[in-house]
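User: Hi! I'm working on a homework problem where we have to compare a predicted structure to a textbook description. Could you give me the structure for the chain below?
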Amino acid sequence: MQCDRTPSLYQVHNEDIVNHLYQSGFHTGNYADTLLHVRTIVYRLHALILSRSPYLTHLMSTSPQTGSQHLIYVNLDREPEVTDEGFHHALAYLYSGAALANIRPENARGVLAAACLLGGMDDLCNYAYELCRQSISLDTLPSWLEFVDSMPVPSDGSSTPIVDQHQHSRTAVFGPYAQRLREDIFNFLVVTLPNLVNYGGQATPTTPLPEGASQHADAGRETLLQVFARVPFDLFKAAIESPSFQLGSVHSRFKFAKDAIELRKQGIARGTGAEETVVLAFGGNTSQSGGVLVTRKLRRRQLWKVNS
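Assistant: Happy to help. Predicted structure tokens:
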């Protein structure tokens, strides 16, 4: 027995209204009663639709009204994660779900930031977040590592924090999605990436051998080392110490960490004034660290004696 999937008259009518709002209202700006300024762009929009966003509702209620028009300014100077494209698609979603067709992995992070800022769009947030999660790959990892590096991380006592905790975090706009993305990136580093690069195996198209390396070299290990040489310290520490980071034996993971730290001295850790070290943990409860511990301490400044 087949179900009749023909849209009802009500569904067709509702879709026609939404399509009219989207095309004539958002794209054309017909009968607009609100001018929204964001960076160098001006939108001609409609207060009734914008009131779906708690953030924009607040701006409209606290901004002066010129004649019959609202005039609102959205200040994004401290929100670099909210891109112009992302903000555009989030505004469009207030008018119609048709805006989802324009959201891609390349712009999803900007859309997620804008949707979190505007509020009232949980569905859009979840949709954009899922695209972000799926976009994490070896090619996009550098951008995601920069994202993690901009997140404030409290010290757990085993390292000396270097980041100024009083600065406004560029990732604060994401709310709980920031931590979820950090966990996704962590999972990619610890679980997905070692398998992706064929750690412990021979060279593959994904992990070609470095120039001059022996054909018997572990190309996957070399690729993984190059990645971990650029990982922010807090994430590096958590990944190395995680029992889920399976690189064979504990000693193999310890050797990997030592080699990675040597590479980090020439790059991400250079000039920080801090020294990263790794040790093997013996006795006690080492289940949480998997037997490998990573620390970072500020180097002591050399004192000069001045003779009178």
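For your comparison, note the following. The longest strand covers residues 274-280. Residues 6 and 91 are 30 Å apart (CA to CA). Good luck with the assignment!
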